[in-house]
Amino acid sequence: MSGHQPGRHFLQIPGPTNIPGAVLAALAKPTIDHRSDEFGQLGLEVLSNLQRIFKTNKPVFMFPSSATGAWEAALTNVLNPGDSILIYDTGYFASQWRHLATNLGFNVEVIESDWHTPVNAARLTEQLINDRNQHIKAVCIVHNETSTGVTSDVAKVRRAIDDVRHPALLLVDTVSSLASIDYQHDEWQVDVSVGGSQKGLMLPPGLSFNAVSDRALKCHANSQFPKSYWNWGEMLSHNKKGFFPYTPATNLIFGLQESLKLILDEIGLQNVFNRHARHAAATREAVRHWGLQMVCQDPTAFSSTVTAVMTPANGSANQLRQIILSKFDMSLGTGLGKFNDRVFRIGHLGDLNDLSLAGTLSGIEMGLKICSFSFREGGVSKALDYLVRAD
Ligand SMILES: *Cc1c(COP(=O)(O)O)cnc(C)c1O
Known about the structure:
The protein is of the alpha/beta class and 391 residues long. The chain is built from 13 helices and 13 strands. Strand 6 (144-145) and strand 7 form a beta hairpin.
């Protein structure tokens, strides 16, 4: 593709997401001295606003990295070499976390799933009861599995661990739910939460986060796992004055300052959650009318940020995405792992309004038609009806 594309590109992958103009403008500000008083003020402001986003009173750590880095930070700060952990494999992202933990030398136990359903607390309970000597030091789950569009109930997982009096820490990936689906780090007693900048926070990729508990900080103090760049200890002392132990991603932090202001003070966090839920419900109206299957097979676990859809019998999802990209300049999420070419994913998170969603669904309906897939026309109308009804 070359030359100017009229209109704007529709970036409807489930992250990176569309960036509001005010955030783009903030990213473009001249870089400042990261050891100046001005930076210290900025650092204090964003770290305290991040606590409001995670709903926590405890420190939130921020790294200049993709979210994968914050997975590594979560594990290496609270565990010891060779520790056992339990990962619930709800989809591609859970399996990537498992892969990373294995590479770091942890003994990774896995609860396998069919990638169509959320974390089943009863299966977790069973596994923890079987762990008689309490070898498992941490349970890792993904709150919103971006590869499948399935959201798990974190509070239920916490209760499952507590009910069997198992001392394992709870580590939760909230990368594609933070600032778009309600997430309560303190209330749900999560020990380490992992976040990233490029999804609900409406920023470019490049920042990642760890929210922590008192217990996680205690485990950190006793952790012998080798680490340096990811070490919370040095971060903590610098962060007290809004600084970082190495050069922070200054301009991304300008953007973060702006996006946090938008989300917390101008739009309101609860309004952000409601908007995402409403757009997700409208999307499902369209998908159901088209007669296509969603990857998520549990109606209580539909994601508010991403809908993963199976193509009709043997249709190539990659061909569909390619046609939609070339004809309508819209990017949809690819099927990940075993869903490659069988699934396309509609990202409806971040800076989105009713008409962006209408355009997104229209592009998909036209693409289905061009591909001659067997489906029922008129899904877009159903979604629009829903948007009008559920104002
Ligand atoms: C996007 C995503 C990640 C990975 O983030 P990177 O920035 O690519 O490292 C991890 N977990 C979930 C649930 C995600 O959606």
